[in-house]
């Protein structure tokens, strides 16, 4: 921390004007000069001020959602989305979780929760494993044609996946796994593959080359280098991959219904049915509660896995 | 395969054998699903398939109709505006946030989760919430006016001229957190020694970022670029939830055209023609770039 | 208690064969809102009472969301037991490809041809003389819903038809009331236009344009009048600033808007808010000008299954759907009109009764969903939503309309 502040003067000057305009808390700094160890240094004010402002922008809609989910419908109809609830009610949350109807089944989101978990876990593990290994071979063990396949894969990332539904239905039907959980896991792996492979390939490429060469000289093979060196060094990117996949698969609706049967429909089917009912009164409070509940699982994953972001893993591995 | 044992020196096929085995899933997906599926789509875009794929060829009819459609032209224009702005803002905001997060700050976990949480929410609700916040009658315009600025005009939900920017605001809110995470992962992959060295040399921080760190993060930037760009091309749910493409067709996008014509109009041929045009555009941009990017540097 | 309820339902369906082999039948549909779900419950209960089991596959969001799923399941070789589609031509190709089950025997047994009214409902289930679906309800589009309170505020009498409504609009505007509420989704603009066409232009004009697809008529002076009326409606609807149809209905409900042109499902919103027809709101079928209603609605289709027990269960479900008791129970909950004319709907409210009376008189027309393909319908939607939200001229709009009609199918 201390040595960072020795050269940050220049960077502060650049943004000073902007900060003057945007950070009211600057007044707290007072007239005294800079003291490196002070918690309320100019650098910190700029830093936390900017982060705080950005956080406000990101939190505003969350505020609206939470506030709305705690209001009753009559209050929502009156119309100010920002006003706090006059009467707090948890009914929308209860309704979203346990009572909202999907056709005949009135047990809310809880119905699909475990189905979603059953779909999520294998899909995330399988897709990330396959993609990380593919990315690793593309980065470190190129073979003839590997780049061509990879380029096709990348273009695949741009295909709207609804377009691919019919061909994939046909392929899965021919293999005989249409309508099974295996089929769904394969579909998730397929559509996660372009971005994930790219993610891992490019991350492994950016790692110091000496590391890989040294390991080869030591006689380590394909899988040894992957398991002992690449895996531990790639933790931050594994976190990103996990964020992508957990969110994508957890929020997926289309594949979940197209490739499975009602008894294993994921939670998003209920979410869709709650949020998307075309004919009838829109219960905005229940919608918001349902969304926040559905978002809870990815959010927990973000928060917990975030620890793996700590700097030093990579640096440590290089030195070790 | 069996005959390869004949040769004495290590055979071409067995070089990097493990790597090839590990890549089988990737090769399968690339060739069978994406290439195969795309070829299938392109072929059927020349048919008059309706609800089900049907091999009655009609030449370029579907394409003629596509380019004669006012809605398609507006869709492309909207995508261009949204795409360019979204690309710039995502990268800039994402990188700046990541750089700030990388200053060994306190509560990093909290801030990261705050920036990232919108990504956990479905587009359906993102659109709904922003539709409210931007709504002239009870959203931002209402608040500003009630504060005394009576003539304040900000209506990106029902004003056809700026509706696409309303979608941009919501899209950035949802997506920049992930970009920040990617950038952060990239920054964390950079050796601490680089920073130490630049400090010793007395190079100002912003210069270190601009001329040393960012070039080193090139692969991460490329990944990010592809993620953002593919998200832009596939932009659909958000538009549906926030504006339904309206008012009128002022916020239509190509992916929505594709889906609407495939499933609502039950005209697969027209939908496939539109998706072929999208794919073609993507391919024209990506293939040369991929050639330069992946074909140039050899390694490993 | 369960047994009693069961017995009651059993009693209601004694007419059905109870000795058949029982089977689980998965039924996919997009009836997910409150009233719709209650209606499905009636149907499922009646079906379960036959000894079979209804496995519910509800997926909200008709067009874009539910249909690709249903079609994938059917073409993927893992079909559901039965599925909802709108009346009309949505399932046409599935039938052509031989993926759907022929219900002619069931129809014959139940004398569907005699009891189902109007007859065109069954026509759109018919392909090459065989019957492939069971119609379950009727919805109509041609309704003008008016807020009595809004007109009172404006100091004018509640209009009795569309022309009076247009004439009263300036008074509404002066009182700060939005004359016509119109949601932003394309299908609403399209429905408004088609309603103007049949209600102001008459059934003949409507059929010439959509049934005969006569481009000359579409380009003619009579259609020009409809476009002029649409232009007027566009002016009255300016500033609605809502997305969903029920938000627009809500404007009428709360007196913020004078009126809305919307199908009879809007009725549900009024009853849910505890409003009474006549005193709180007024409904004008056929916009008060032309008492003709189009008959849209839903129908249940049955994919071809290999399992014999399930096929038998499909027959039972088809019989249950057309059963008079179920028709009453289902449609009262759904707020729609039953598909048979020989049953008593005394429990219906005033607006619903007006609709039933018009249909009973035979003043019906085939809906656009049945007359033109989904593709043509979508193109119309694109045009109309653009027309109602921009300032493209009436002339240009009509020219583009003619293009659509001349290539319509």
Q: What is the spatial order of strands in the main beta sheet of chain C?
A: 2-1-3-12-6
Looking at the structure, the CATH topology of the largest domain in chain A is MetI-like fold
Shape by Cα distribution of chain A: flat
Count, helices of chain A? 15
Residue fraction in strands of chain C = 5-15%
Taking Cα atoms only, what radius of gyration of chain A do you get, to the nearest Å?
25 Å
Biggest interface, which chains?
Answer: A-B, 117 and 116 residues
In helices, the fraction of residues of chain A equals 55-70%
Radius of gyration of chain C, CA atoms, in whole angstroms: 22 Å
Approximately how much beta-strand content do the residues of chain A carry?
under 5%
What is the CATH superfamily classification of the largest domain in chain C?
Answer: Periplasmic binding protein-like II
Give me the secondary-structure category of chain A.
mainly alpha
User: Low-confidence parts of chain A lasting 5 or more residues at pLDDT below 50?
Assistant: 1-37, 312-320
How much helix, percentage-wise, in residues of chain C?
40-55%
- What's the CATH first level of the largest domain in chain C? Alpha Beta
Oligomer status? heterotrimer
Q: How many β-strand runs of chain A?
A: 0
CATH class call of the largest domain in chain A: Mainly Alpha
Features:
heterotrimer; A: 320 residues; mainly alpha; MetI-like fold; 68% helix; 0% strand; flat; disordered N terminus; C: 409 residues; alpha/beta; D-Maltodextrin-Binding Protein, domain 2; 4-stranded mixed sheet; 20 helices; 13 strands; 13% strand; transmembrane helix (chain B)
Structure in words:
The complex is a heterotrimer of chains A (320), B (300) and C (409). Chain A has 15 helices and no strands. Chain A is mainly alpha-helical. Residues 1-37 and 312-320 of chain A have low confidence and may be disordered. Chain A is 68% helix and 0% strand. Chain A has helices at residues 9-22, 42-69, 73-78, 91-99, 110-140, 146-156, 165-175, 181-206, 209-217, 222-233, 235-251, 254-258, 267-275, 284-305, 313-319. Chain A is flat and about 70 Å long. Chain B is mainly alpha-helical. Chain B has one domain: MetI-like fold (Orthogonal Bundle). In chain B, helix 2 (61-67) crosses helix 13, helix 5 crosses helix 7 (163-188) and helix 8 (192-200) packs antiparallel against helix 9. Mean pLDDT of chain B is 86; it is low at 1-8. Helices cover 52% and strands 13% of the residues of chain C. Chain C has helices spanning 2-12, 34-48, 62-75, 92-96, 104-109, 112-115, 120-123, 148-154, 162-174, 186-210, 215-219, 221-237, 245-253, 266-272, 308-322, 324-334, 350-360, 368-371, 374-389, 394-406; strands at 24-29, 53-58, 82-86, 126-127, 130-131, 133-135, 143-147, 178-180, 257-261, 281-285, 293-295, 298-301, 364-366. In chain C, strand 4 and strand 5 (130-131) form a beta hairpin. The longest helix of chain C is centred in the middle third of the chain and has 25 residues, at 186-210. The termini of chain C are far apart. Chains in contact: A-B, A-C, B-C. The interface between A and B is large, with 117 and 116 residues.
